[in-house]
Design goal:
217 residues; alpha/beta; BirA Bifunctional Protein, domain 2; 8-stranded mixed β-sheet; 11 strands; 30% strand
Length: 217
């Protein structure tokens, strides 16, 4: 039995104000994942925002980086392709010990999706999964499908990191520098573009409220 199993620590919630540099966030996550595995730190759900940047997942196609000089580009070890992070987007990094949760990565991704879907429903937004497409999607009145939230997951020694991002009120034009997640035939939405006047604090409160029904062991 590991130290973490003998003395489980309560989940920590953390919110960082302002814009967190991407490399700084990665360093924090790397250390926390190691500490969770070693049983010296609790699981962590971390709310933050990044300055404008693009990230390239392990499946990224270089041709999908349309404007390589527009914002910094970070190669990351999470699954997925290119995505955008920037002000007005709620990024949530989720560091969980999946040994306590069945060691089922597919189930974990499903839970992340459901967490987003249930949370957005509180703002009267119908968000859905789409077969063959990662992330969470909304359908406009005219039938257009747009992505409102992205998911990128990495697991090391059965500890998760990276996580989700929800478009609250980012500059959606910033997405034009990439083909988001390799999908060119669909657009990108935000709560703001859907006519929802919602603050980051509103989103954070709902995410915390919806957590226990989905993730509690």
């Amino acid at each position: 039995m590991t130290e973490a199993e003998k003395n489980p620590l309560p989940l920590e919630w953390k919110t960082t104000q302002g814009l967190t540099p991407y490399d700084e966030a990665m360093a924090v996550m790397e250390q926390r994942v190691a500490d969770i595995h070693n049983g010296t730190a609790s699981e962590l759900v971390w709310f933050l925002e990044h300055p404008p940047l693009y990230t390239a997942g392990t499946s990224a196609n270089p041709q999908d980086l349309v404007a390589p000089d527009r914002f910094p580009v970070h190669d990351v070890g999470r699954g997925g392709q290119y995505t955008y992070h920037g002000p007005g987007q709620r990024v949530v990094y989720v560091m969980l010990d999946l040994t306590k949760r069945g060691r089922d990565v597919r189930k974990y991704v499903f839970q992340l999706e459901q967490w987003i879907i249930d949370s957005l429903a509180e703002f009267t937004v119908i968000a859905e999964r789409r077969d063959g497409r990662i992330g969470v999607w909304v359908t406009r009145d005219d039938g257009r499908e747009e992505k409102i939230a992205a998911i990128g997951v990495r697991v090391r020694k059965w500890v998760s990191f990276h996580g989700i991002c929800i478009n609250v009120a980012p500059d959606l034009e910033h997405y034009s520098g990439i083909v988001p997640c390799g999908i060119s035939e669909h657009g990108v939405a935000s709560l703001e573009s859907l006519g929802r006047s919602v603050t980051m604090a509103d989103v954070d409160a709902v995410l915390r409220q919806k957590w226990s029904g989905i993730f509690e062991v």
